[in-house]
Protein backbone atom coordinates (compact mmCIF):
# COMPACT_ATOMS: atom_id res chain seq x y z
CA UNK A 1 0.00 0.00 0.00
CA UNK A 2 2.89 2.36 0.78
CA UNK A 3 4.30 1.72 -2.68
CA UNK A 4 0.91 2.54 -4.23
CA UNK A 5 0.72 5.92 -2.50
CA UNK A 6 4.37 6.58 -3.35
CA UNK A 7 3.59 5.97 -7.02
CA UNK A 8 0.56 8.27 -6.82
CA UNK A 9 2.75 10.96 -5.28
CA UNK A 10 5.30 10.56 -8.06
CA UNK A 11 2.57 10.83 -10.72
CA UNK A 12 1.21 13.94 -9.02
CA UNK A 13 4.67 15.48 -8.90
CA UNK A 14 5.21 14.83 -12.61
CA UNK A 15 1.76 15.84 -13.88
CA UNK A 16 0.48 18.60 -11.58
CA UNK A 17 3.08 21.33 -12.38
CA UNK A 18 1.70 21.71 -15.91
CA UNK A 19 -1.76 22.55 -14.59
CA UNK A 20 -0.24 25.34 -12.47
CA UNK A 21 2.00 26.66 -15.25
CA UNK A 22 1.57 29.66 -17.53
CA UNK A 23 -0.40 27.35 -19.86
CA UNK A 24 -2.66 26.17 -17.03
CA UNK A 25 -5.92 27.65 -18.28
CA UNK A 26 -5.68 26.06 -21.71
CA UNK A 27 -4.66 22.77 -20.08
CA UNK A 28 -7.48 22.89 -17.54
CA UNK A 29 -10.12 23.73 -20.16
CA UNK A 30 -8.95 20.93 -22.44
CA UNK A 31 -8.79 18.43 -19.57
CA UNK A 32 -12.20 19.50 -18.32
CA UNK A 33 -13.63 19.10 -21.83
CA UNK A 34 -12.19 15.61 -22.17
CA UNK A 35 -13.66 14.63 -18.79
CA UNK A 36 -17.06 16.20 -19.60
CA UNK A 37 -17.24 14.33 -22.90
CA UNK A 38 -16.30 11.06 -21.16
CA UNK A 39 -19.13 11.57 -18.66
CA UNK A 40 -21.49 12.27 -21.58
CA UNK A 41 -20.41 9.06 -23.28
CA UNK A 42 -21.17 7.09 -20.12
CA UNK A 43 -24.58 8.77 -19.97
CA UNK A 44 -25.24 7.65 -23.54
CA UNK A 45 -24.24 4.11 -22.54
CA UNK A 46 -26.87 4.25 -19.79
CA UNK A 47 -29.49 5.46 -22.28
CA UNK A 48 -28.50 2.69 -24.69
CA UNK A 49 -28.88 0.14 -21.90
CA UNK A 50 -32.42 1.33 -21.31
CA UNK A 51 -33.03 1.37 -25.06
CA UNK A 52 -31.84 -2.24 -25.20
CA UNK A 53 -34.75 -3.43 -23.06
CA UNK A 54 -37.38 -1.50 -25.03
CA UNK A 55 -35.96 -2.55 -28.40
CA UNK A 56 -35.86 -6.30 -27.72
CA UNK A 57 -39.24 -6.19 -26.01
CA UNK A 58 -40.59 -4.65 -29.22
CA UNK A 59 -38.96 -7.47 -31.20
CA UNK A 60 -40.46 -10.11 -28.86
CA UNK A 61 -43.91 -8.45 -29.04
CA UNK A 62 -43.75 -8.01 -32.87
CA UNK A 63 -44.51 -4.29 -32.34
CA UNK A 64 -43.47 -2.70 -35.66
CA UNK A 65 -44.15 0.92 -34.67
CA UNK A 66 -42.17 0.61 -31.44
CA UNK A 67 -39.42 -1.18 -33.35
CA UNK A 68 -39.07 1.67 -35.89
CA UNK A 69 -39.27 4.32 -33.17
CA UNK A 70 -36.49 2.65 -31.19
CA UNK A 71 -34.33 2.40 -34.32
CA UNK A 72 -34.66 6.15 -34.89
CA UNK A 73 -33.90 6.80 -31.24
CA UNK A 74 -30.80 4.64 -31.54
CA UNK A 75 -29.64 6.56 -34.65
CA UNK A 76 -29.87 9.87 -32.76
CA UNK A 77 -27.89 8.49 -29.80
CA UNK A 78 -25.33 6.91 -32.13
CA UNK A 79 -24.83 10.19 -34.03
CA UNK A 80 -24.28 12.11 -30.79
CA UNK A 81 -21.93 9.39 -29.56
CA UNK A 82 -19.84 9.57 -32.77
CA UNK A 83 -19.49 13.37 -32.62
CA UNK A 84 -18.50 13.28 -28.95
CA UNK A 85 -16.00 10.45 -29.50
CA UNK A 86 -14.34 12.29 -32.38
CA UNK A 87 -14.00 15.55 -30.47
CA UNK A 88 -12.84 13.79 -27.33
CA UNK A 89 -9.97 12.27 -29.31
CA UNK A 90 -9.21 15.63 -30.95
CA UNK A 91 -9.17 17.56 -27.66
CA UNK A 92 -7.22 14.77 -25.95
CA UNK A 93 -4.50 14.97 -28.60
CA UNK A 94 -4.48 18.76 -28.41
CA UNK A 95 -3.98 18.60 -24.65
CA UNK A 96 -1.22 16.00 -25.07
CA UNK A 97 0.87 18.10 -27.47
CA UNK A 98 0.54 21.26 -25.34
CA UNK A 99 1.41 19.32 -22.21
CA UNK A 100 4.32 17.61 -23.94
CA UNK A 101 5.65 20.92 -25.26
CA UNK A 102 5.58 22.42 -21.76
CA UNK A 103 7.25 19.40 -20.14
CA UNK A 104 9.90 19.24 -22.89
CA UNK A 105 10.80 22.90 -22.40
CA UNK A 106 10.91 22.37 -18.63
CA UNK A 107 13.10 19.27 -18.75
CA UNK A 108 15.42 20.73 -21.38
CA UNK A 109 15.77 23.84 -19.26
CA UNK A 110 16.61 21.92 -16.09
CA UNK A 111 18.95 19.54 -17.93
CA UNK A 112 20.86 22.28 -19.74
CA UNK A 113 20.71 24.90 -16.98
CA UNK A 114 24.16 26.17 -15.98
CA UNK A 115 26.00 23.14 -17.43
CA UNK A 116 23.91 20.71 -15.37
CA UNK A 117 24.03 18.12 -18.20
CA UNK A 118 27.83 18.09 -17.88
CA UNK A 119 27.81 17.68 -14.10
CA UNK A 120 25.29 14.84 -14.38
CA UNK A 121 27.76 12.97 -16.59
CA UNK A 122 30.63 13.64 -14.20
CA UNK A 123 28.56 12.31 -11.30
CA UNK A 124 27.75 9.11 -13.14
CA UNK A 125 24.31 10.20 -14.41
CA UNK A 126 22.08 7.56 -12.80
CA UNK A 127 19.45 8.56 -15.39
CA UNK A 128 21.01 7.05 -18.51
CA UNK A 129 20.15 8.29 -22.00
CA UNK A 130 18.67 11.74 -21.26
CA UNK A 131 17.73 11.99 -24.95
CA UNK A 132 15.29 9.10 -24.50
CA UNK A 133 13.85 10.55 -21.29
CA UNK A 134 13.09 13.87 -22.98
CA UNK A 135 12.12 12.70 -26.47
CA UNK A 136 10.21 9.50 -25.69
CA UNK A 137 9.42 9.10 -22.01
CA UNK A 138 7.64 12.44 -21.73
CA UNK A 139 5.43 11.49 -24.69
CA UNK A 140 4.69 8.05 -23.24
CA UNK A 141 4.00 9.47 -19.78
CA UNK A 142 1.41 11.93 -21.10
CA UNK A 143 -0.21 9.40 -23.47
CA UNK A 144 -0.47 6.71 -20.80
CA UNK A 145 -1.59 9.16 -18.11
CA UNK A 146 -4.44 10.40 -20.28
CA UNK A 147 -5.42 6.91 -21.46
CA UNK A 148 -5.31 5.28 -18.03
CA UNK A 149 -6.80 8.31 -16.28
CA UNK A 150 -9.76 8.54 -18.64
CA UNK A 151 -10.23 4.76 -18.52
CA UNK A 152 -10.31 4.73 -14.72
CA UNK A 153 -12.67 7.73 -14.62
CA UNK A 154 -14.97 6.04 -17.12
CA UNK A 155 -14.86 2.82 -15.09
CA UNK A 156 -15.79 4.59 -11.85
CA UNK A 157 -18.68 6.52 -13.40
CA UNK A 158 -19.89 3.46 -15.31
CA UNK A 159 -19.75 1.35 -12.17
CA UNK A 160 -21.79 3.84 -10.17
CA UNK A 161 -24.30 4.30 -13.00
CA UNK A 162 -24.84 0.67 -13.91
CA UNK A 163 -24.65 -0.83 -10.44
CA UNK A 164 -27.93 0.95 -9.63
CA UNK A 165 -29.48 -0.54 -12.76
CA UNK A 166 -28.03 -3.98 -12.07
CA UNK A 167 -29.20 -3.93 -8.45
CA UNK A 168 -32.75 -3.14 -9.58
CA UNK A 169 -32.60 -5.84 -12.26
CA UNK A 170 -31.49 -8.36 -9.65
CA UNK A 171 -34.94 -7.95 -8.08
CA UNK A 172 -36.73 -8.20 -11.45
CA UNK A 173 -34.75 -11.29 -12.48
CA UNK A 174 -34.19 -13.27 -9.26
CA UNK A 175 -31.72 -16.10 -9.25
CA UNK A 176 -33.52 -19.24 -10.50
CA UNK A 177 -31.93 -22.52 -9.45
CA UNK A 178 -33.36 -26.03 -9.15
CA UNK A 179 -36.82 -24.82 -10.12
CA UNK A 180 -36.99 -22.17 -7.39
CA UNK A 181 -36.39 -18.43 -7.19
CA UNK A 182 -33.76 -17.28 -4.72
CA UNK A 183 -34.19 -13.69 -3.55
CA UNK A 184 -30.59 -12.53 -3.07
CA UNK A 185 -30.41 -8.71 -2.99
CA UNK A 186 -28.10 -7.45 -5.76
CA UNK A 187 -26.84 -10.93 -6.62
CA UNK A 188 -25.94 -9.77 -10.15
CA UNK A 189 -23.71 -7.07 -8.65
CA UNK A 190 -21.98 -9.60 -6.40
CA UNK A 191 -21.50 -11.99 -9.34
CA UNK A 192 -19.89 -9.24 -11.44
CA UNK A 193 -17.72 -8.18 -8.49
CA UNK A 194 -16.47 -11.72 -7.80
CA UNK A 195 -15.80 -12.31 -11.50
CA UNK A 196 -13.81 -9.05 -11.84
CA UNK A 197 -11.83 -9.51 -8.61
CA UNK A 198 -10.72 -13.01 -9.59
CA UNK A 199 -9.68 -11.79 -13.03
CA UNK A 200 -7.77 -8.82 -11.57
CA UNK A 201 -5.89 -10.92 -9.04
CA UNK A 202 -4.78 -13.50 -11.59
CA UNK A 203 -3.85 -10.76 -14.09
CA UNK A 204 -1.60 -9.05 -11.58
CA UNK A 205 0.03 -12.30 -10.48
CA UNK A 206 0.85 -13.23 -14.06
CA UNK A 207 1.66 -9.80 -15.45
CA UNK A 208 3.42 -7.90 -12.65
CA UNK A 209 6.87 -8.84 -13.98
CA UNK A 210 6.07 -6.83 -17.14
CA UNK A 211 6.71 -3.59 -15.22
CA UNK A 212 10.39 -4.35 -14.68
CA UNK A 213 10.75 -5.96 -18.10
CA UNK A 214 9.32 -2.89 -19.85
CA UNK A 215 11.64 -0.64 -17.86
CA UNK A 216 14.67 -2.69 -18.94
CA UNK A 217 13.47 -2.89 -22.54
CA UNK A 218 13.40 0.87 -22.90
CA UNK A 219 16.86 1.11 -21.33
CA UNK A 220 18.35 -1.58 -23.59
CA UNK A 221 16.74 -0.03 -26.70
CA UNK A 222 18.12 3.41 -25.82
CA UNK A 223 21.58 1.97 -25.12
CA UNK A 224 21.59 0.21 -28.48
CA UNK A 225 20.54 3.40 -30.30
CA UNK A 226 23.18 5.42 -28.46
CA UNK A 227 25.95 3.03 -29.52
CA UNK A 228 24.73 3.09 -33.13
CA UNK A 229 24.98 6.89 -33.06
CA UNK A 230 28.51 6.69 -31.59
CA UNK A 231 29.52 4.33 -34.39
CA UNK A 232 28.19 6.74 -36.99
CA UNK A 233 29.89 9.74 -35.40
CA UNK A 234 33.25 7.94 -35.21
CA UNK A 235 33.04 6.19 -38.56
CA UNK A 236 36.37 7.58 -39.80
CA UNK A 237 38.39 6.26 -36.85
CA UNK A 238 36.62 2.88 -37.06
CA UNK A 239 37.32 2.64 -40.80
CA UNK A 240 40.99 3.60 -40.40
CA UNK A 241 41.47 0.93 -37.75
CA UNK A 242 39.40 -1.59 -39.78
CA UNK A 243 37.38 -2.01 -36.62
CA UNK A 244 34.12 -3.00 -38.32
CA UNK A 245 34.18 -6.65 -37.09
CA UNK A 246 34.89 -5.53 -33.52
CA UNK A 247 32.21 -2.85 -33.80
CA UNK A 248 29.66 -5.35 -35.08
CA UNK A 249 30.41 -7.70 -32.19
CA UNK A 250 30.03 -4.82 -29.72
CA UNK A 251 26.77 -3.64 -31.26
CA UNK A 252 25.32 -7.14 -31.44
CA UNK A 253 26.22 -7.61 -27.80
CA UNK A 254 24.10 -4.55 -27.02
CA UNK A 255 21.35 -5.84 -29.29
CA UNK A 256 21.55 -9.20 -27.56
CA UNK A 257 20.28 -7.52 -24.39
CA UNK A 258 17.37 -6.11 -26.41
CA UNK A 259 16.51 -9.54 -27.80
CA UNK A 260 16.89 -11.38 -24.50
CA UNK A 261 14.65 -8.97 -22.62
CA UNK A 262 12.12 -8.95 -25.48
CA UNK A 263 11.88 -12.75 -25.36
CA UNK A 264 11.15 -12.50 -21.64
CA UNK A 265 8.41 -9.94 -22.42
CA UNK A 266 7.00 -12.26 -25.09
CA UNK A 267 6.79 -15.17 -22.66
CA UNK A 268 5.12 -13.14 -19.93
CA UNK A 269 2.78 -11.43 -22.44
CA UNK A 270 1.74 -14.80 -23.89
CA UNK A 271 0.66 -16.00 -20.46
CA UNK A 272 -1.12 -12.74 -19.74
CA UNK A 273 -2.90 -12.79 -23.10
CA UNK A 274 -4.13 -16.35 -22.49
CA UNK A 275 -5.77 -15.08 -19.32
CA UNK A 276 -7.13 -11.76 -20.60
CA UNK A 277 -8.43 -13.21 -23.89
CA UNK A 278 -10.13 -16.07 -22.06
CA UNK A 279 -11.49 -13.68 -19.47
CA UNK A 280 -12.91 -11.38 -22.14
CA UNK A 281 -14.54 -14.20 -24.10
CA UNK A 282 -16.05 -15.73 -20.98
CA UNK A 283 -17.45 -12.35 -19.95
CA UNK A 284 -19.64 -12.34 -23.09
CA UNK A 285 -21.66 -15.39 -22.04
CA UNK A 286 -21.24 -15.26 -18.25
CA UNK A 287 -24.16 -12.84 -17.62
CA UNK A 288 -26.47 -14.94 -19.84
CA UNK A 289 -25.52 -18.03 -17.85
CA UNK A 290 -26.45 -16.21 -14.64
CA UNK A 291 -29.71 -14.62 -15.88
CA UNK A 292 -31.04 -17.10 -18.49
CA UNK A 293 -32.65 -19.46 -15.93
CA UNK A 294 -35.01 -16.64 -14.93
CA UNK A 295 -35.80 -15.94 -18.59
CA UNK A 296 -36.56 -19.56 -19.45
CA UNK A 297 -38.64 -19.82 -16.31
CA UNK A 298 -40.79 -17.03 -17.78
CA UNK A 299 -39.98 -14.54 -15.04
CA UNK A 300 -38.57 -11.85 -17.37
CA UNK A 301 -39.05 -10.86 -21.03
CA UNK A 302 -36.30 -10.89 -23.67
CA UNK A 303 -35.64 -7.16 -23.29
CA UNK A 304 -34.89 -7.48 -19.60
CA UNK A 305 -32.57 -10.42 -20.36
CA UNK A 306 -30.52 -8.39 -22.87
CA UNK A 307 -30.64 -5.26 -20.68
CA UNK A 308 -29.39 -7.28 -17.73
CA UNK A 309 -26.58 -8.81 -19.79
CA UNK A 310 -25.62 -5.35 -21.09
CA UNK A 311 -25.64 -3.80 -17.60
CA UNK A 312 -23.73 -6.78 -16.22
CA UNK A 313 -21.07 -6.37 -18.91
CA UNK A 314 -20.82 -2.65 -18.19
CA UNK A 315 -20.27 -3.26 -14.47
CA UNK A 316 -17.88 -6.11 -15.20
CA UNK A 317 -15.89 -3.92 -17.64
CA UNK A 318 -15.73 -1.13 -15.08
CA UNK A 319 -14.46 -3.49 -12.42
CA UNK A 320 -12.05 -5.08 -14.87
CA UNK A 321 -10.40 -1.86 -16.01
CA UNK A 322 -7.16 -3.00 -14.38
CA UNK A 323 -7.15 -6.08 -16.61
CA UNK A 324 -7.97 -4.07 -19.72
CA UNK A 325 -5.14 -1.55 -19.29
CA UNK A 326 -2.60 -3.82 -17.60
CA UNK A 327 -0.02 -3.80 -20.39
CA UNK A 328 -0.27 -0.02 -20.72
CA UNK A 329 -0.15 0.23 -16.93
CA UNK A 330 3.08 -1.80 -16.83
CA UNK A 331 4.68 0.47 -19.44
CA UNK A 332 3.34 3.55 -17.63
CA UNK A 333 4.93 2.47 -14.34
CA UNK A 334 8.26 1.97 -16.11
CA UNK A 335 8.04 5.43 -17.70
CA UNK A 336 7.17 7.00 -14.34
CA UNK A 337 10.23 5.38 -12.75
CA UNK A 338 12.50 6.61 -15.56
CA UNK A 339 11.21 10.19 -15.42
CA UNK A 340 11.38 10.18 -11.64
CA UNK A 341 14.97 8.94 -11.83
CA UNK A 342 15.77 11.66 -14.35
CA UNK A 343 14.31 14.27 -12.00
CA UNK A 344 16.48 12.99 -9.17
CA UNK A 345 19.58 12.98 -11.37
CA UNK A 346 18.87 16.56 -12.45
CA UNK A 347 18.43 17.59 -8.81
CA UNK A 348 21.73 15.92 -7.82
CA UNK A 349 23.57 17.68 -10.66
CA UNK A 350 22.04 21.04 -9.73
CA UNK A 351 22.87 20.54 -6.04
CA UNK A 352 26.50 19.76 -6.87
CA UNK A 353 26.90 23.32 -8.19
CA UNK A 354 25.68 25.04 -5.02
CA UNK A 355 26.31 22.66 -2.12
CA UNK A 356 29.51 23.70 -0.27
CA UNK A 357 32.32 23.21 -0.72
CA UNK A 358 32.16 24.38 -4.34
CA UNK A 359 34.16 26.57 -6.66
CA UNK A 360 32.34 29.89 -6.85
CA UNK A 361 32.19 32.38 -9.69
CA UNK A 362 32.13 35.83 -8.13
CA UNK A 363 32.24 39.36 -9.41
CA UNK A 364 35.56 41.17 -9.21
CA UNK A 365 33.69 44.46 -9.44
CA UNK A 366 35.71 47.21 -11.12
CA UNK A 367 38.96 45.25 -10.90
CA UNK A 368 40.59 44.90 -14.35
CA UNK A 369 41.82 41.37 -13.64
CA UNK A 370 40.36 37.87 -13.55
CA UNK A 371 41.65 36.37 -10.29
CA UNK A 372 41.88 32.87 -8.83
CA UNK A 373 41.33 33.16 -5.09
CA UNK A 374 42.54 30.18 -3.01
CA UNK A 375 41.33 27.90 -5.78
CA UNK A 376 41.43 24.16 -5.08
CA UNK A 377 40.11 21.93 -7.85
CA UNK A 378 39.00 18.41 -6.90
CA UNK A 379 37.77 15.35 -8.77
CA UNK A 380 34.05 14.53 -8.33
CA UNK A 381 35.17 11.91 -5.79
CA UNK A 382 36.68 14.66 -3.64
CA UNK A 383 40.31 13.82 -4.41
CA UNK A 384 42.50 16.98 -4.69
CA UNK A 385 43.72 17.73 -8.21
CA UNK A 386 45.00 21.28 -8.77
CA UNK A 387 45.63 24.24 -6.49
CA UNK A 388 46.04 27.84 -7.61
CA UNK A 389 46.51 30.67 -5.10
CA UNK A 390 46.39 34.37 -5.84
CA UNK A 391 46.78 34.18 -9.61
CA UNK A 392 45.41 36.92 -11.82
CA UNK A 393 45.18 37.62 -15.55
CA UNK A 394 45.04 41.22 -16.71
CA UNK A 395 43.88 42.81 -19.93
CA UNK A 396 46.03 41.99 -22.95
CA UNK A 397 48.14 39.38 -21.13
CA UNK A 398 49.59 36.33 -22.89
CA UNK A 399 50.01 33.37 -20.54
CA UNK A 400 51.29 29.86 -21.32
CA UNK A 401 50.25 26.95 -19.06
CA UNK A 402 52.25 23.71 -19.14
CA UNK A 403 52.51 20.57 -17.06
CA UNK A 404 52.53 16.78 -17.32
CA UNK A 405 49.69 15.09 -19.20
CA UNK A 406 46.84 14.27 -16.82
CA UNK A 407 47.95 16.82 -14.24
CA UNK A 408 44.66 18.76 -14.41
CA UNK A 409 45.36 21.65 -16.77
CA UNK A 410 42.11 21.18 -18.72
CA UNK A 411 40.15 20.72 -15.50
CA UNK A 412 41.59 24.01 -14.21
CA UNK A 413 40.25 25.71 -17.34
CA UNK A 414 36.85 24.05 -16.79
CA UNK A 415 36.77 25.47 -13.28
CA UNK A 416 37.60 28.95 -14.61
CA UNK A 417 34.90 28.50 -17.26
CA UNK A 418 32.35 27.83 -14.51
CA UNK A 419 31.40 24.25 -15.38
CA UNK A 420 33.50 22.42 -12.76
CA UNK A 421 32.15 23.05 -9.24
CA UNK A 422 34.11 20.34 -7.43
CA UNK A 423 36.56 22.00 -5.07
CA UNK A 424 36.74 25.25 -3.15
CA UNK A 425 37.81 28.84 -3.60
CA UNK A 426 36.61 31.37 -6.12
CA UNK A 427 37.12 32.68 -9.62
CA UNK A 428 36.64 36.46 -9.55
CA UNK A 429 35.61 37.85 -12.95
CA UNK A 430 35.52 41.60 -13.68
CA UNK A 431 32.02 42.99 -13.98
CA UNK A 432 30.70 42.62 -17.54
CA UNK A 433 33.75 40.65 -18.72
CA UNK A 434 33.23 37.81 -21.21
CA UNK A 435 35.10 34.54 -20.79
CA UNK A 436 35.48 31.94 -23.56
CA UNK A 437 37.14 28.53 -23.29
CA UNK A 438 38.08 26.73 -26.52
CA UNK A 439 38.71 22.97 -26.14
CA UNK A 440 40.92 20.92 -28.41
CA UNK A 441 37.89 19.68 -30.39
CA UNK A 442 35.43 22.54 -30.88
CA UNK A 443 31.70 21.87 -30.98
CA UNK A 444 30.08 22.67 -34.33
CA UNK A 445 26.29 22.22 -34.33
CA UNK A 446 24.63 20.56 -37.30
CA UNK A 447 23.23 23.27 -39.55
CA UNK A 448 24.59 26.14 -41.60
CA UNK A 449 28.26 27.08 -41.45
CA UNK A 450 27.14 30.54 -40.35
CA UNK A 451 25.38 29.00 -37.32
CA UNK A 452 28.43 26.87 -36.52
CA UNK A 453 30.78 29.86 -36.47
CA UNK A 454 28.38 32.17 -34.60
CA UNK A 455 27.63 29.58 -31.88
CA UNK A 456 26.56 30.10 -29.14
CA UNK A 457 25.13 33.30 -30.61
CA UNK A 458 22.13 32.94 -32.90
CA UNK A 459 22.58 32.87 -36.70
CA UNK A 460 22.54 36.39 -38.06
CA UNK A 461 24.33 37.84 -35.02
CA UNK A 462 27.37 38.73 -37.16
CA UNK A 463 27.65 40.42 -40.52
CA UNK A 464 28.09 37.93 -43.37
CA UNK A 465 30.98 39.87 -44.91
CA UNK A 466 32.76 39.96 -41.55
CA UNK A 467 32.35 36.19 -41.21
CA UNK A 468 33.75 35.57 -44.70
CA UNK A 469 36.70 37.83 -43.96
CA UNK A 470 37.44 35.97 -40.73
CA UNK A 471 37.27 32.63 -42.56
CA UNK A 472 39.87 33.88 -45.01
CA UNK A 473 42.00 35.21 -42.16
CA UNK A 474 42.14 31.83 -40.37
CA UNK A 475 43.03 30.00 -43.58
CA UNK A 476 39.60 28.71 -44.60
CA UNK A 477 38.93 30.86 -47.64
CA UNK A 478 37.50 27.84 -49.48
CA UNK A 479 34.62 27.73 -46.99
CA UNK A 480 33.63 31.38 -47.40
CA UNK A 481 31.18 30.70 -50.29
CA UNK A 482 29.54 27.91 -48.23
CA UNK A 483 28.45 30.16 -45.37
CA UNK A 484 24.78 29.21 -45.65
CA UNK A 485 25.26 25.55 -46.49
CA UNK A 486 23.79 23.04 -44.03
CA UNK A 487 26.08 20.14 -43.12
CA UNK A 488 27.47 17.99 -40.33
CA UNK A 489 30.65 20.10 -40.06
CA UNK A 490 32.29 18.02 -37.34
CA UNK A 491 32.29 15.08 -39.74
CA UNK A 492 33.11 16.98 -42.94
CA UNK A 493 36.11 18.96 -41.69
CA UNK A 494 39.44 17.73 -40.39
CA UNK A 495 40.29 18.45 -36.77
CA UNK A 496 42.75 21.10 -37.90
CA UNK A 497 40.03 22.82 -39.94
CA UNK A 498 37.65 22.58 -36.98
CA UNK A 499 40.26 24.27 -34.77
CA UNK A 500 40.59 27.07 -37.32
CA UNK A 501 36.81 27.52 -37.17
CA UNK A 502 37.02 27.62 -33.38
CA UNK A 503 39.52 30.47 -33.55
CA UNK A 504 37.34 32.27 -36.10
CA UNK A 505 34.51 32.00 -33.59
CA UNK A 506 36.75 33.49 -30.87
CA UNK A 507 37.75 36.41 -33.09
CA UNK A 508 34.11 37.21 -33.90
CA UNK A 509 32.99 37.04 -30.27
CA UNK A 510 36.10 38.91 -29.07
CA UNK A 511 35.99 37.74 -25.41
CA UNK A 512 37.84 39.64 -22.72
CA UNK A 513 39.45 36.40 -21.54
CA UNK A 514 40.22 33.61 -24.00
CA UNK A 515 41.40 30.25 -22.68
CA UNK A 516 42.84 27.91 -25.33
CA UNK A 517 43.00 24.27 -24.23
CA UNK A 518 45.43 22.95 -26.86
CA UNK A 519 43.08 24.61 -29.34
CA UNK A 520 45.78 24.60 -32.08
CA UNK A 521 47.38 21.22 -31.31
CA UNK A 522 46.28 19.64 -34.63
CA UNK A 523 47.91 22.37 -36.73
CA UNK A 524 51.51 22.39 -37.90
CA UNK A 525 53.88 24.86 -36.26
CA UNK A 526 53.86 27.47 -39.07
CA UNK A 527 50.03 27.45 -39.17
CA UNK A 528 49.85 27.64 -35.40
CA UNK A 529 52.28 30.59 -35.36
CA UNK A 530 50.25 32.40 -38.03
CA UNK A 531 47.06 31.97 -36.06
CA UNK A 532 48.64 33.18 -32.82
CA UNK A 533 49.86 36.29 -34.61
CA UNK A 534 46.32 36.77 -35.90
CA UNK A 535 44.92 36.48 -32.37
CA UNK A 536 47.46 38.99 -31.07
CA UNK A 537 46.43 41.40 -33.80
CA UNK A 538 42.64 40.95 -33.62
CA UNK A 539 42.34 40.46 -29.85
CA UNK A 540 45.01 42.89 -28.70
CA UNK A 541 43.10 43.85 -25.55
CA UNK A 542 42.00 40.31 -24.66
CA UNK A 543 43.82 38.17 -22.15
CA UNK A 544 44.85 34.91 -23.86
CA UNK A 545 45.79 31.93 -21.69
CA UNK A 546 47.00 28.82 -23.55
CA UNK A 547 47.61 25.21 -22.64
CA UNK A 548 50.28 23.82 -24.92
CA UNK A 549 53.29 21.54 -25.08
CA UNK A 550 55.19 22.94 -28.08
CA UNK A 551 58.24 25.03 -27.29
CA UNK A 552 57.35 27.31 -30.21
CA UNK A 553 54.42 28.68 -28.21
CA UNK A 554 56.78 30.51 -25.84
CA UNK A 555 57.35 33.23 -28.44
CA UNK A 556 53.69 34.25 -28.23
CA UNK A 557 53.38 34.45 -24.45
CA UNK A 558 54.92 36.72 -21.84
CA UNK A 559 54.07 34.68 -18.73
CA UNK A 560 54.54 31.00 -17.99
CA UNK A 561 52.58 28.93 -15.47
CA UNK A 562 53.46 25.31 -14.81
CA UNK A 563 51.86 22.54 -12.74
CA UNK A 564 54.15 20.70 -10.34
CA UNK A 565 53.43 18.05 -7.73
CA UNK A 566 52.69 19.40 -4.23
CA UNK A 567 51.61 16.52 -1.97
CA UNK A 568 48.36 14.98 -3.21
CA UNK A 569 47.70 17.67 -5.79
CA UNK A 570 49.33 19.68 -8.53
CA UNK A 571 50.24 23.27 -7.72
CA UNK A 572 50.16 26.10 -10.27
CA UNK A 573 53.40 28.08 -10.06
CA UNK A 574 54.68 30.94 -12.12
CA UNK A 575 58.18 30.54 -13.56
CA UNK A 576 60.36 32.61 -15.81
CA UNK A 577 59.35 32.05 -19.42
CA UNK A 578 62.91 31.32 -20.55
CA UNK A 579 63.10 28.51 -17.97
CA UNK A 580 60.36 26.53 -19.70
CA UNK A 581 61.39 23.12 -20.99
Outline the secondary-structure elements:
Elements: H1 2-15, H2 24-60, H3 64-112, H4 116-122, H5 130-172, E1 175-177, E2 180-182, H6 187-207, H7 209-233, H8 235-240, H9 244-296, H10 302-319, H11 321-324, H12 326-352, E3 360-363, E4 370-378, E5 384-388, E6 391-393, E7 398-402, H13 409-417, E8 423-429, E9 435-438, E10 447-448, H14 449-454, H15 464-473, E11 486-487, H16 489-492, H17 495-509, E12 513-517, H18 525-538, E13 543-547, E14 559-566, E15 569-575
Parallel strand pairs: 3-8, 5-15, 7-13, 7-14, 9-12, 12-13
Antiparallel strand pairs: 1-2, 4-5, 4-6, 4-8, 10-11, 14-15
Helix pairs in contact: 1-12, 2-3, 2-5, 2-10, 3-5, 4-12, 5-10, 5-12, 6-9, 6-10, 7-9, 7-12, 9-10, 15-17
Short key terms for the protein model shown above:
2 domains; Rossmann fold; ABC transporter transmembrane region fold; two-stranded antiparallel ribbon; 15 strands; 581 residues; alpha/beta
- Looking at CATH, the homologous superfamily of the largest domain is ABC transporter type 1, transmembrane domain
Level-2 CATH architecture of the largest domain: Up-down Bundle
Shape annotation? elongated
Roughly what fraction of the amino acids lie in strands? 5-15%
Q: From the alpha carbons, calculate the radius of gyration and give it in angstroms.
A: 35 Å
What is the highest CATH level, the class of the largest domain? Mainly Alpha
How much helical structure, as a percent, in the residues? Answer: 55-70%
Question: Mean pLDDT, rounded to whole units?
Answer: 86
CATH topology of the largest domain: ABC transporter transmembrane region fold
Report low-confidence residues grouped into runs of 5 or more. Answer: none
Number of helices, where a helix is a run of at least 4 consecutive DSSP H or I residues: 18
The major beta sheet can be summarized as: 11 strands, mixed
The number of domains is 2
By DSSP, the count of extended strands is 15
From the N-terminal CA to the C-terminal CA, the straight-line distance is 69 Å
The secondary-structure class comes to alpha/beta
Amino acid sequence: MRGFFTTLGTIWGLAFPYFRSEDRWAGRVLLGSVIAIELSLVAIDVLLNQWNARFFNAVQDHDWDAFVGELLYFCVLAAIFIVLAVYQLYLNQWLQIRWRQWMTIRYLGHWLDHSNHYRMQLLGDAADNPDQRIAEDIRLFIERTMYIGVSVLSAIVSFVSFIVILWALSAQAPLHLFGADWAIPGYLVWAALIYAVLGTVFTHLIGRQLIGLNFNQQRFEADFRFNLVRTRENSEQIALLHGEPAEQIRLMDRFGSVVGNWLAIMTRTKRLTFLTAGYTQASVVFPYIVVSPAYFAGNIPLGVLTQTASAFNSVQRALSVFITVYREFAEWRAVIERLSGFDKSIAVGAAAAVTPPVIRLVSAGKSPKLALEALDVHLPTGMPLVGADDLAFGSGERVLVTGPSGSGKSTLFRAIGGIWPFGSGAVAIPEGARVMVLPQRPYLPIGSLEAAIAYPAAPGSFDADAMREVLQAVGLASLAPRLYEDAHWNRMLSLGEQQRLGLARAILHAPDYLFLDEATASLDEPAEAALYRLLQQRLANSSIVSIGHRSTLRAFHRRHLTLTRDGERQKVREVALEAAE
